[in-house]
């Protein structure tokens, strides 16, 4: 088997599309910026051969396939500068079966591989567990989705592959001693760490050995296992106290003294411990999930399953991975609790419309949040979208409203029953003048055809403008002695359905 075929088999995923990325510049923090796009056509071994040879733009693969399953996943650590050698040491000390590759910007792609296909949900949960254990709980996880709505045009997010220009490139893996791995050594790393589905499932179920935080937040289990050092001691002890109030409602004040001595390094002085206790006595506080030292170790999804975790009563829906399809008008996809939700722009602006979309597509209604909080959340999602490769996708013209309009015009002029002569225009048929090679029809007849096909996006003035855009003009012709107002359009100027849609080629029906 050639290197390209072997590499392609390891990084299998969605077959009907792939991504590309061309670097334009580098930011001051070292992160590369450039042009990312999604190519909606089947990938081949040839694409991997070009990638490994460094020809053209590198290839990106969508890890979740047509059956919502994965054979690999990745923790994307976006930290600059990053000591890859120390990261490898930490991973090996934790017996984590991850293979570390340098990303195009100098961060780390921590890959996990499976011999067989597993559900995207299993892959995602495993990586979230490992990321929180590493202290990178806020990092991006690929696959980003647990389900794709391919019939709606959503293909998820791609990840740029390692070993672009394998001989001389910088996207290499790291051996256990921290040295750069050749492509052949990468294959050896893969063989050494690839998991069976059963092993992968065991990683998800594995808990950090710490009897201090039984059935509590995984972040606190990790922190207590390694002890909470200076800089995070007060916040850390506060969240431990929140856990103790839930787990030991009658004796939590005594327990917090023990936990301070056992898991805070060095322990806080007694007066500071008492201040934390007084804070906790005032009300039933929540965990400080967004603050240090907890935030880097957060595993929200797993925490919600714990008896003394954040709990459904205080948790909100998880929304992430906003994607935009640049059709006219644009179509958006947002992952809500890991499931893609199709939205229009109004649903992003208006929380009530968003809730309606959740009810119709996901069968639940999220709680209403304050308007300012909603707007802040959407703005953050849009910022993340702009910074994520391939999250803004161009679509072909025929996937847009304009494209649909001209397809209907082409169908009306060429596929419906055409008039034999100009008199039959009065029978609601288009007529082609052979001398001028121009089609003539009444506007009201074409609008009736659009209504019949449930196309209502354009009012009359917009229909007229789109006809003018292709050199159409309103004229009068004589029919049976009467002046009839019609539209005249050169046949050669009517956009014909000669380009297949590459943006939504898997559709059985058009959702726009």
Describe this structure in words.
The chain is an alpha+beta fold. The chain folds into 4 domains: 3-205, DNA primase, PRIM domain (Alpha-Beta Complex); 211-314, no CATH class; 322-393, no CATH class; 398-493, Arc Repressor Mutant, subunit A (Orthogonal Bundle). Helices cover 37% and strands 20% of the residues. It has helices at 3-10, 45-53, 84-93, 120-134, 183-193, 197-205, 218-226, 233-247, 252-263, 270-282, 300-305, 311-314, 345-349, 351-362, 371-387, 401-414, 443-452, 460-469; strands at 18-26, 32-39, 58-61, 69-77, 99-102, 108-119, 140-142, 159-160, 173-174, 180-181, 228-229, 264-265, 319-325, 331-336, 339-343, 392-393, 431-433, 438-441, 473-479, 482-490.
Question: What is the fold's blueprint, element by element?
Answer:
Elements: H1 3-10, E1 18-26, E2 32-39, H2 45-53, E3 58-61, E4 69-77, H3 84-93, E5 99-102, E6 108-119, H4 120-134, E7 140-142, E8 159-160, E9 173-174, E10 180-181, H5 183-193, H6 197-205, H7 218-226, E11 228-229, H8 233-247, H9 252-263, E12 264-265, H10 270-282, H11 300-305, H12 311-314, E13 319-325, E14 331-336, E15 339-343, H13 345-349, H14 351-362, H15 371-387, E16 392-393, H16 401-414, E17 431-433, E18 438-441, H17 443-452, H18 460-469, E19 473-479, E20 482-490
Parallel strand pairs: 11-12, 13-16
Antiparallel strand pairs: 1-2, 1-3, 3-8, 4-6, 4-7, 5-6, 9-10, 13-14, 14-15, 17-18, 18-20, 19-20
Helix pairs in contact: 1-2, 1-5, 4-6, 8-9, 8-10
Low confidence ranges: 498-512
Average pLDDT across residues?
A: 85
Distance between the termini: 44 Å
Give the neighbour order of strands across the main sheet. Answer: 2-1-3-8
Residue fraction in strands: 15-25%
């Amino acid at each position: 088997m050639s290197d390209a075929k072997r590499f392609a088999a390891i990084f299998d995923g969605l077959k009907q599309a792939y991504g590309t990325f061309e670097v334009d510049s580098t930011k001051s923090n070292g992160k590369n910026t450039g042009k990312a796009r999604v190519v909606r056509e089947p990938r081949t071994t040839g694409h991997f051969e070009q990638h490994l040879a460094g020809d053209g733009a590198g290839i990106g693969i969508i890890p979740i396939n047509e059956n919502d399953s994965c054979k690999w996943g990745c923790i994307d650590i976006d930290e600059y500068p990053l000591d890859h050698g120390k990261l490898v040491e930490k991973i090996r000390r934790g017996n984590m079966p991850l293979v570390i590759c340098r990303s195009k910007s100098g961060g780390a792609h921590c890959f996990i591989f499976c011999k067989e296909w597993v559900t995207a949900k299993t892959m995602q949960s495993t990586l979230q567990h490992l990321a929180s254990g590493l202290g990178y709980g806020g990092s991006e996880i690929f696959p980003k989705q647990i389900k794709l709505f391919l019939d709606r045009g959503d293909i998820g997010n791609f990840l740029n592959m390692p070993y672009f220009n394998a001989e001389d490139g910088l996207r290499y893996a790291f051996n256990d001693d921290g040295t750069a791995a050749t492509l052949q050594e990468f294959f050896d790393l893969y063989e050494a760490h690839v998991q069976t589905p059963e092993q992968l499932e065991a990683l998800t179920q594995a808990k950090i050995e710490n009897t201090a935080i039984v059935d509590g937040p995984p972040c606190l289990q990790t922190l207590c296992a390694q002890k909470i050092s200076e800089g995070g001691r007060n916040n850390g002890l506060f969240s431990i106290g929140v856990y103790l109030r839930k787990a030991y409602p009658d004796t939590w004040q005594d327990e917090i003294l023990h936990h301070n001595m056992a898991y805070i390094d060095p322990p806080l002085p007694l007066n500071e411990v008492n201040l934390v206790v007084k804070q906790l006595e005032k009300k039933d506080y929540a965990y400080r999930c967004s603050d240090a030292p907890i935030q880097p170790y957060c595993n929200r999804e797993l925490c919600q399953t714990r008896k003394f975790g954040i709990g459904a009563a205080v948790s909100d829906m998880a929304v992430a991975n906003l994607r935009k399809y640049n059709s006219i008008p644009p179509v958006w996809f947002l992952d809500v609790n890991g499931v893609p939700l199709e939205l229009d722009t109004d649903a992003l602006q208006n929380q009530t419309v968003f809730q309606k979309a959740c009810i119709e597509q996901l069968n639940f209604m999220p709680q209403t949040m304050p308007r300012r909080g909603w707007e802040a959340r959407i703005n953050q999602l849009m910022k993340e979208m702009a910074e994520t490769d391939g999250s803004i996708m161009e679509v072909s013209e025929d996937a847009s409203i304009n494209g649909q309009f001209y397809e209907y015009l082409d169908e009306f002029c060429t596929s419906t029953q055409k008039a034999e002569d100009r008199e039959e225009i009065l029978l609601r048929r288009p007529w082609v003048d052979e001398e001028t090679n121009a089609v003539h029809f009444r506007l009201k007849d074409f609008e009736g055809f659009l209504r019949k096909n449930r196309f209502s996006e354009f009012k009359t003035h917009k229909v007229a403008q789109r006809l003018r855009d292709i050199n159409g003009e309103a004229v009068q012709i004589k029919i049976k002695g009467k002046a009839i107002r019609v539209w005249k359009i050169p046949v050669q100027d009517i956009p014909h359905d000669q380009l297949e849609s590459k943006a939504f080629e898997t559709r059985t029906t058009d959702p726009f």
